[in-house]
Structures are given as C-alpha cells and as structure tokens.
Amino acid sequence: MRERRAVGRPQEDENVRSLEDKIPYIREQRRKKANRRLIYVLILIGLLVGVVFYLQSSYSRVAQFDIDGNVNVKSADILQASGIKVKETHAFNVSEEDVLERIEKVPGIQEATMQKQFLHQYRVTVTEEKEIAYAKDKPGDRIVLADGTIIPGKSKEELFDAPILTGFTDQSLNRLTKELVKIEPKVRSRISEIVANDKTDKGGLKLFMTDGNTVLLSTSAFSNSLNEYVKVISALPKGKTGTITIDGGIYFKPYKGKK
C-alpha cells in the first residue's frame, strides 16, 4: 500500500502544477470576455443615445420643402395640403405617395411629383389645371380652371385663349362653371365672351362666338346644347350670321343688313 501511494504522488503533483499554470490563462480569457461585453454595452448605449439625440434634433426633420410649377394655386395652400411642416415634421414620417395624393386633391392641381434631395430636402413640382375662362366683374377678376375651380386674380398667361365672363354673381358663376367644364375644348375655343343675360339670376346667357354669331340660351341647357353648336351652324344658310336662340328648339335670326 505504501509503495502504491509513493508511486501516485508525482502524477498528482504534476496535475496540480498543470492546473496552476492554466489559471492565469483562464483568468486572462475571462477578463477579455468581460472587456468585450463592456465594449458592446457601451457601444449599444452610445447608439441609443445617438438615436435619441438624432430624433430630438433638427437633423431628423424636413429641412426644406420647395414647390415649383404653380402659377394660380398658392404655394401656401399646397404646403398646407401636403401635411409637411418644415423644421417640425420628422423625415421618416414623410410618405411620398401620401404627400402627392393630398397635394393632387388641392383644387386647381392636376398632377404632382416629388423628388427627395440631400439632407431631408424635398422638391414638389405641380401641374395646374388649364385656364378655361376668365371672369371680369365684381368682386374682382377670377380665373376658372378646367376642374371647375374658381380662383381670384388675373390670368398670368400671355396668350389666354378662353372666353371672358361678365355680369355674373358668385352663385351664377358657380352654376355656369359646372356646365362650362363639360364643354368640348374645340367648342369652348369658339366662345369669345359669355354675358349673364338675366337680371333675376335664373341663368339666361348671351354668348358671343368667334365666328360672329350670338347664342342665347339658359345655363341649364348650356353644355348639352352648345356641344351641338358645330352641327347647328353647319345647317345655317351659307355666309349668314345672326342670333341663335336655343329654348326647347333652335331658332336663327340673321343680323339686319348682313347677307
């Protein structure tokens, strides 16, 4: 028994020494792991602090929102409809599809496109509805657009090929506009001027045509009757101009002194 114990002691001492040699290495590895974990935690905290700082700073918000292409529609109205507030709206909340959809609902706007630029800067380009008539009367000059929108102000187009509207109140102008947008462009271009021809505001109209004829009709019969104007004048005596009355039927009275 004693001999066996004596034989086993050197191996036990060797195992103890081997374990003692490994302890510093194990401690070093544990220290490195702890350091790495601390670095990861610090990086994560730094990222979170950076994100919070970014969200709270002006760098995360819309820096600029430019609007191009509008002539009759005010930029302020387009900006308000877009839902964008410069220096306030977060850039990650900006949806191009939603912004354009809201802008295209603005009266007088036909189409809009948006381009994102550097550092949360946006540029919107709009296409307005075409001017189809121009009202010159109290309470002031007004422009009628192809979607029926009536906008205060003077026409800014150099060549304005559209009828002049005179003598209309706000109510009668609104009724006329609803009918005017239904007129085919090729027929509308033949109208030089439309005058409210009824002081009782029931909708009597007098139209001066570019071909020299005068047309009398009511607002209610305006779009349906006038779209047939080309057919009407083709049935008139050749070379004759005069007054065409549309009231349940079509009546033509040539001007006096003209062939």
Layout of helices and strands:
Blueprint: H1 2-56, E1 64-68, H2 75-82, H3 96-103, E2 109-117, E3 121-128, E4 131-135, E5 142-145, E6 150-152, E7 164-166, H4 170-180, H5 185-188, E8 191-196, E9 204-209, E10 214-218, H6 222-226, H7 229-234, E11 242-246, E12 250-254
Parallel strand pairs: 1-3, 4-7, 7-8, 10-11
Antiparallel strand pairs: 2-3, 4-5, 5-6, 8-9, 9-10, 11-12
- Fraction of residues in helix: 25-40%
Strand content: 15-25%
Radius of gyration, in angstroms, nearest whole number: 40 Å
What are the low-pLDDT stretches, counting only 5+ consecutive residues below 50? none
Biggest sheet: strands, sense, closure?
9 strands, mixed
| Helix/strand class | alpha/beta
Number of strands: 12
Count of helical stretches? 7
Shape: rod-shaped
If strands are numbered along the chain, what order do they take across the biggest sheet? 6-5-4-7-8-9-10-11-12
The average pLDDT value, as a whole number, equals 82
The secondary-structure element order is: HEHHEEEEEEHHEEEHHEE
Span of the ends, CA to CA = 151 Å
Report on this structure.
With 259 residues, this protein is of the alpha/beta class. The protein is built from 7 helices and 12 strands. The strands form 2 sheets. It has a 9-stranded mixed β-sheet with strand order 6-5-4-7-8-9-10-11-12, with helices on one face. Strand 5 (142-145) and strand 6 (150-152) form a beta hairpin. Helix 2 (75-82) packs across helix 3 (96-103). The chain is rod-shaped. The relative contact order is 0.07. Belongs to the FtsQ/DivIB family. DivIB subfamily. Keywords: Cell cycle, Cell division, Cell membrane, Membrane, Transmembrane, Transmembrane helix. It is a single-pass type II membrane protein.
